[in-house]
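DM from R.C. (forwarded with permission)

"hey, sorry to bug you on a friday — could you get me a structure for this? deadline for the figure draft is monday and I only need the backbone to look sensible"
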Amino acid sequence: MNELNISVYIKIMQIGFMTHDKQKAAAEFILNSINDQIYVINNGYQKDFSSKKISLIVNRKAPVPDGIKKASAIGEVIDATIDYFIKKVVVDLNPHVKDDVLDKLSKLIEIDKTISDAKRKSLLGFYQSGDEGKFLGETFLYSVNKPNKKDDNVVEADDAPLLAEANYECPLCHDKLLETVKGKSIKRYVITQIFPEDISEDQKNEFNSVYKKPHNLDSPDNLIALCERCSEEYFLAPTIDEYKKIHETKSMISRNYKAKIAANNVELEENIRVVLNALINIKRTDPLVVLEYDALRIEEKIPNNYILKDETINSVLNYYRYIESVFSESDADFDEIASEVKVCSQKFEKSGMSQDEVVFNLAEWIRNKTKLEEKSRRACNIVVAFFIQNCKVFHK
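My reply, with the result:
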C-alpha cells in the first residue's frame, strides 16, 4: 500500500469514521461528495453504487467511474467537494483516531514516487497548515484521478502458492490459469474468496450453517485460484451449492498439495543435510571476522525486494530449525563457518551487486565450494536464507 489511489484512500478513511465505518458506507460517503452534486446528476454521470461495484473499486478490480473523474475537474464541483469534506467528512472522523488517519495519508503522499514534487508539496502544505478538510478533499480529488484498476495480466508473487496448490489449472473446469505469450506468463485467473464478503446477511447465515465463516476472509484457507469465467460466475451470484462445492474442492486440492510438499521436503531436507555436511568439511581460505549478532528482522534486511523477502521468510520458516539441528549434531565450529560466509557475503555486497545477485552468487559459492551438482542449487539457496536470518548476510 505505497501508492495513492481511490482504493487505498477509502481503506484509510474507513478506519477513522464513526458512522460510516463499513466498507460500502465509507465508500459511498466519500464518493457521494461528487456523485450527488447537481452538475453530476444533470450530466447523467451519477452512479448507483451497489455492494458489488463498491467491492470492485476497493479491491482495485474496477476503475473510478468516468463520470465522477470528468466531474472532478470542473471548478464548481471541486469547490463543492472541498466544502463537503469540511462540513461532513471531517465531522464524522473519530477524534481519538483522526490524527492517525491524517498521518497515514500524509506519509503515503511522502513515499508515493508517482506523485510529482509540486503536487506532493501542495497536498502536504494543507496538512502541515492544519487545514484538515482541505487536505482530505484535495487528496480525495487527486486519488480519484489516479489509476485504480490493477493490471489484470500481472502475475502477483503472493498468488504463487495458490496457483501451485491448484496445479496451475482451474479446479472447477480445468482451464489453464496461466498462458505463455512470447515467453511471458499471462494471468488467466482470479484469486477468489470461498466464503464471499459481499453477500446478504441471510446468505451469510445459510453459508455459515454448511461451513463456518472464517475469521479472516482473505486468509489463504478462504482463497482459491479459479479461471476468470468460473470466478465471475461465482462472484456475481454465489449459491449455497456452489459454496459447498468450492469449499470441498479447496479442501481436496489443499490436502493433496500439502501431501506433495511433505514428500518433497523429505528429499529436500536430505539435500540440505548433504550441503551442510559438505560445507562443514571444506577447508577455510579466509581469516575469521568478528560476528555481529544484531537481531535485524528479514523485513529490515530486505525492505524493498518483496519476492526475495517472501522466498527467504518461507525458507526460514520451513527449514531454520532443521539446519540448526544439523549443526548441533555435528562437531563443526559454527562461528568459523559463519565467518567465512560473512566474508564472502561482504565481498559480494561491496562490489555493488543487488540483493538478488548476492543471494544467487552466495548459493553458487556454497555449491562450488562443496563440489555439489546443479540439483543441489535449491538446497544451497535455503542455506543462504538461514544465514540471512542468522545475521551473517545483509546488514543495515
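R.C.: lifesaver. The first strand starts at residue 178 and ends at 181.
me: no worries. Strands lie at 178-181, 184-187, 189-193, 223-227.
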